C-alpha cells in the first residue's frame, strides 16, 4: 500500500477544507455529503469531524444508524482531544453489548493506525525521525 504523504500544514488545510464543506452540507440538510466530508477530515486527524461523524452514526442522520460505528468514531474523537466526545461515547456504549464494544474498539484501533500513518508520511517511510 502506498501511503500518501503530506506536510502537516497540507494535511491540516485539507482536513479543515473538508470540515468546512461538511458543515455547510449539514446546515443545508445534505447529510450524506456532510458525512462524506466529515469522514475525509476525520481520516486526516480532524477531531471535531470524528465527533460529528460519530453523532451522525448515533442518530442515523445521513448514514445508517449504527452505535457500533458511532462508538468507533467517538472513541477516536476523544483520543484526539474532542471535549464533547465522552458524553456521546457513553450513549453509544449503552446501545452495544460488551462484544460489540470490543469489536468497535478494534475498528477504532485500525482507523487510528491509518490516521497515524498519514501523519507520519515521509518521516515514517525514510526513518529520518530516528536520527
Distance between the termini: 25 Å
Uncertain segments are 124-131
Rg to the nearest angstrom? 15 Å
The ordered string of helix (H) and strand (E) elements is: HHHHHH
Q: Based on DSSP secondary structure assignment, what is the total number of beta strands?
A: 0
What's the mean pLDDT score? 90
The helix-and-strand class reads mainly alpha
Helix content: over 70%
Beta content comes to under 5%
Structural shape: globular
What does it look like?
The protein is built from six helices and no strands. With 131 residues, the protein is mainly alpha-helical. It starts with 7 loop residues before the first helix and ends in a 5-residue tail after the last helix.
Keywords:
single chain; 6 helices; 131 residues; globular; mainly alpha; disordered C terminus
In a few lines, what is going on in this structure?
75% of the residues lie in helices and 0% in strands. It is an all-alpha fold. Helix 3 packs parallel to helix 5.
What is the strand and helix layout of this fold?
Blueprint: H1 8-27, H2 31-43, H3 47-59, H4 67-79, H5 85-94, H6 98-126
Helix pairs in contact: 1-2, 2-3, 3-4, 3-5, 4-5, 4-6
Amino acid at each position: 500500500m502506498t501511503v500518501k504523504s503530506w506536510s502537516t500544514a497540507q494535511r491540516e488545510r485539507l482536513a479543515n477544507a473538508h470540515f468546512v464543506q461538511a458543515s455547510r452540507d449539514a446546515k443545508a440538510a445534505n447529510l450524506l455529503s456532510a458525512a462524506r466530508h466529515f469522514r475525509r477530515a476525520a481520516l486526516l486527524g480532524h477531531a471535531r469531524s470524528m465527533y460529528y461523524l460519530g453523532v451522525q452514526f448515533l442518530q442515523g442522520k445521513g448514514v445508517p444508524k449504527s452505535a457500533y460505528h458511532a462508538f468507533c468514531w467517538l472513541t477516536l474523537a476523544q483520543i484526539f482531544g474532542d471535549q464533547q466526545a465522552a458524553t456521546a461515547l457513553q450513549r453509544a456504549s449503552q446501545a452495544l453489548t460488551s462484544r460489540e464494544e470490543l469489536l468497535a474498539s478494534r475498528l477504532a484501533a485500525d482507523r487510528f493506525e491509518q490516521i497515524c500513518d498519514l501523519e507520519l508520511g515521509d518521516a515514517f517511510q525514510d526513518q529520518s525521525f530516528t536520527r
